[in-house]
Amino acid sequence: MSKVIINRNSSTIVILMLIFLASGTFFGVANAQNLNETSSNNKSLSLNDLFELVENSIVQVIKTMPPADPLGPDKENTTSLGSGFIYNDKGYIVTNNHVVENAKVVDITLINGDRYTANITGTDAFSDLAVIKINENTTDIPKPLVVGNSSELRVGDQVVAVGNPFGLESSMTTGIVSQIGRLLSVDERGFSIPNAIQTDALINPGNSGGPLLNMKGEVIGVNTAGIFPGGIGLAVPSDTVLRIIPVLMEEKNYTHPWLGVTGNTLTADIAKREKVDRTQKGVIIDTIVRSSPADLAGLNGSSINQYGEKRGGDIITALDGKQIIKMEDLISYLELNKAVNDNATLSVYRDGEIIDKQVTLKSRPVAPITNQTQN
């Protein structure tokens, strides 16, 4: 059974260990005015026209890092390649956090061979997003891409991924939206990105940070990971980009609300184990982080009885009156509707009845969490 963490979330996808992060691409629109006209007319482009419209604004991101041990046998610098896209006309570029992680400056290359350096402006490991800014004069850089509305996506919509897979510049793959609302685990501590877009467009190493586009040429996601083998690509939704990137540009970082529990979607098997009605829905709490909002509110985690049998904790059935059916519901609601220091009402099923618990959300801790408790 796969464990999931609420705002310390690991994805419910069982094949998590096969997910790779595919270092990223910058992309922009060759003609932003044409793209805006296309979007306003709700007109779909041919694949040829779409690629020609965006290719000049997609860039390769090159990170060079010194050896971990300068006195060791390997004294060569290491280089990793990714992708990104031009976000605005001031020289800001969006990419993935894992593309630029631990760097202060990166190199970027446009499709025409022009090269620039860029400073890391802001990063957010929890959404795997980063924004960087070109150091040189930005008068001649291509126009930015238009960021669309990912909430309008439907399963079956055609999409296009553009980036630099395996260092092969400006490559395009096509596919459809396979599903929306996925949990994408990108953080070694178990936090996940909610509402990720699943696509069968190939997302290979080097594509990370590049755009996932609709057929109007609008960015509806940032390519972040692929599952191989399997041909499953995952992208951070554009609605998340529009919420987080402006904050990173101004404040360098982004704070996420945190509850401080791990848990699982209540399945028929778990309901049978817990001796609750099979029609009961919600998220059953496993562990609770000491001094977290959940701990301070008096929520119960799992326990081990004298026979070594594990019993789950409270079952979260609603948050602020919104029904919680699965883990994705809980994580998405917290991320999209709550902020640090906000109050929230958790409705939990305990001992045959529903009780309400008031919590005050905190900011996700940056350091690894080790002080989990089991009640």
How would you explain this protein's 3D organization?
This protein is 15% helix and 38% strand. Strands 1, 17, 18, 21, 22, 23, 24 and 26 form an eight-stranded antiparallel sheet that branches. Strands 3, 4, 5, 6, 7, 8 and 9 form a seven-stranded mixed sheet that branches. A six-stranded antiparallel beta barrel has the order 10-11-12-15-14-13. It has helices at residues 32-40, 47-54, 97-100, 238-251, 268-274, 293-296, 327-337, and strands at residues 4-6, 19-21, 25-26, 58-65, 78-86, 92-95, 105-109, 115-124, 129-134, 158-163, 171-185, 192-199, 211-213, 219-227, 232-237, 257-258, 261-265, 283-289, 303-304, 310-311, 315-319, 322-323, 343-350, 353-360, 362-363, 372-373. The chain has three domains: 16-21 and 148-249, Trypsin-like serine proteases (Thrombin, subunit H, Beta Barrel), CATH 2.40.10; 23-65 and 74-134, Trypsin-like serine proteases (Thrombin, subunit H, Beta Barrel); 257-373, PDZ domain (Pdz3 Domain, Roll), CATH 2.30.42. A hairpin with a 5-residue loop joins strand 13 (211-213) and strand 14 (219-227). The protein has seven helices and 26 strands.
